[in-house]
Structure formats: C-alpha cells, structure tokens
C-alpha cells in the first residue's frame, strides 16, 4: 500500500477478503460428524493442520502442545502480537437433532466406558470460525502488520486444556517458539439469535469449582439402623443444607449457584452402606463470594458429619477450578466501539453475566496479559423470532443439550467476521 493510498475500512477488508463460506460449511459438517472427547482430539487437530497447510506455507505450525493442542503463527512485519483461541473438544452426549450431518460417533470416555459423542457445545463452530478468520487475515495481510497466533485448544470441557498447553511450555521460547501475545481473544457460540454478537465489561462468565465428597459411615443390616451410621441420611442432610448457603450466607445482591450433580451410595435395599459419594459444582461471579461459598460448603459438610457421629472425617477433593472470565473495562471500551461500528444493531451489550464457565482466560492470566471474550448467536433467526412472538424462548435448545443445533448460516460468517474485526482493531495499518 503506497503512502498516498487511502486504506480501506475494516468492513471493506472483510468484504473483499472473506473466503467462500460454502467451503467452510462442508468443513463444519465434517467436524460435526466426527466429534472427539476431551484429550482425544487427534483427528480434529490433524484436519486443522491439513487445512492450514493447504491455505499457505506461511503458517508456522506447532502441534501436540498439552495433548492435541496446536498453534499456527502468521508473521507479517513488525507490530503487536495477538492470540486467537478456539476450543475443539466435544461432549459425551447422544445427538438428537436429526440433522443430516448428526453425529453417530462413539468413543471410550475417561472412565473406560463407551459413550456417544456430540459437538453439543458448539466447539466445531469455534474451530471453523477461527479458520475463516485465518484465511481472511492471510489474504488481507497487505492491510495489517504484526503477528497472529491461531490457537486450537483441547480439553476445554475437562477444564484443563488451556492450563495443559501453558504447562507444556506454550510460551516457553525454547519449547514451542510461540510469541508472547499482547492480547488474547476468544468467543463462544450461544443460544441467542443468529447474527448477534454480545459482550460486556466485567464478568461475562462465572468461575466454577467442582468437588467430590465421600461420607464415611458404618454399614450393616437394614433392620438394625441403631447399630449403623447411615451415610445416605447424612449426605441427604448435607444436600439440603447446602442450598441455605445461597439463600442465607451469600448477600442477596451477589450471585452463587450450588449444584449437587450426582450421588452414589449402596447397592441393595436391605443394606445400610458404609459410605456415600457425591459431587458439588459451585458457580460465582466474584472471588470474594467464591471463597465465602467454598468455606461454608466445607463447614457444612464437616458439621453434618460430626452431627451424624461419623467415625471418620469426610474426604473433600477439589477436582477442578476455573476462574471468572472478566473483560477489563479499557479493552471493552475499545472493542465494543469496533463491534458496534461493524455489526450495528446486531451488537448488544450482554444484559447479564453467564453462569457457564471457561478456561480461556488462563491463556492470558498465566502470562499477565489482557484478554477479551464475547458471545455470538447461533439460533436460526426465523425460529428465534417465532418463539419470541409467543414468549417461548425458554424452549430453545441450549449448549450441552442433545438438541443443540446452531444454524450454519449466518453463524459461520458472524463468528468469522467477529474474530477478524477484533484482530484488525489491534493490527490494522492506518496509513
């Protein structure tokens, strides 16, 4: 571009260089048909590598980072470095969408048992939208300068994918030669009207803590409860009591959710078992409330076990912890203006935080860098409008549902454009 040439707008760049989306529709269907569970994403990773190599040999590709994670580095003269992230794992869900490209795949889960597998959270969209952005930015490299790291992350659903890549030396120059980014960007398809892009300053997704709890009782014959210590009764008291933490401990203007997702105890109706196991998931939007809830959960469990005369203290294991995903106000100010300018009325400020959780922010916080995360809609526009007209939006299939089936168009374009426009906000040449 000459010094006298007027640079095109971001809108013009995307319109000119956005690739043929029919190619990406086919790629999306292939990935949706072949989902892979967390830590098993080998075929998906190989497909991504093949596609990037077909696009250009300018991508510096590094594979097998923290499992099946990979990066593709695109350098284009001096400038800032940004990292764009897409997760690529699927869920142990049996698909019920009846789509022609519905998954019928089965895999062995972490427990060694065979399970159906489905892209029920939209990670297939994340992968393809990032590849759309990669091709757009590759073709438009005359109009931006800097370095872009396209990162495809495994095991988001397991909660350890981002941290696994970091621990495997993602940003260690001697290991994977990934440049440290100045900004990390990510997005997630959501059960909102297709074409919409939504974000907000502050918490946009909650923290998540998962606990496994074992209550130790004294087993025996069902006819002699006085000779036993029944862990089922004690666990039942704990489950009920935990709900009072939200209603009586957490301030009414704060947000917390406590869910007991599973309980396992006993095998026969005439046997009082000797132990009960249950799992707890905790969602909060601030670190102060998170620590308050975790403390009271522990106290409640220990107190009920003491009241039930357990002969052994409960075993409380912290299985997983994900931080709040919170957009810093200065970054939000900048990218909100960019999104509003490009998407116009299709961009909205998210009215509230989602209580879903993400490990995305760890890619940035692990190196002390800022990040930004947004949502983009996937629900067919006509379906959304018709359900809104009769106040039935609560029936829209949500992420992790076996019926979650985002519309391919315009979802692919929206996600691809959003990643591209956010990248240009930091890298576009102004002269």
TrEMBL record:
Q: What is this protein called?
A: Peptidase M20 dimerisation domain-containing protein
What residue stretches are annotated with the Peptidase M20 dimerisation domain? 213-305
Q: Which PANTHER family does the record cross-reference, listed alphabetically?
A: METALLOPEPTIDASE, PUTATIVE (AFU_ORTHOLOGUE AFUA_6G09600)-RELATED (PTHR11014:SF63), PEPTIDASE M20 FAMILY MEMBER (PTHR11014)
Q: Give the family, as the similarity comment puts it.
A: Belongs to the peptidase M20A family.
**Which Gene3D superfamilies does the protein's record reference?**
3.30.70.360, Zn peptidases
Q: Name one GO molecular function term.
A: hydrolase activity
Recorded hits in Pfam families, A to Z, give: M20_dimer, Peptidase_M20
Record: residues binding Mn(2+): 121, 123, 157, 188
User: Keywords on this record?
Assistant: Hydrolase, Manganese, Metal-binding
The cofactor required is: Mn(2+)
How and how many cofactors are bound, per the record note?
Answer: The Mn(2+) ion enhances activity.
- InterPro entries per UniProt: Amidohydrolase, Bact_exopeptidase_dim_dom, Peptidase_M20, Peptidase_M20_dimer
